[in-house]
Amino acid sequence: MTLEETIIAMLEQNNVTYEIFEHEPVYTNPVMAEVLGVQESETVKSLVLKTKEGTMAVLVLPGDKRVNWKQAAAGMGTKKVSFAKPEDVSKAVGCEVGCVPPFGHRTTLPVYMDPEMTKKDFVYFNPGVHDKSFKIKAWDLKKLCKPKFI
What are phi and psi of 44, to 5 degrees? Predict the structure, then answer.
């Protein structure tokens, strides 16, 4: 099962209404927002981080935000976090960097989320491919990610 199929299955199992948008490949949140005609803050930025201890986690942010490294490390209970290596992301998540979905990963990774994500009506994310985006209610994103908020 592909990552996209896993995500669709999770959406359907949880009775989450979703829309799929096919578009030209996008590699950044500003371009994704432009292609979809939405605010960049409505796009989901899912970053795979590695702690000082070597564990990986996903940080979910609005597309227009940058990582606050100190806050992310403190929220994850470590002294330092950094981006995971692309090859480690691919193995753990099931896709390349730049289209990591906020949930549905190949391996179970803890998810940390900026509380701003739940204040939107709808959010848009890539389902592990660069040429599609899914639209769901922000509240459903919280339900599917089961995040810790930082």
Answer: -100, 130
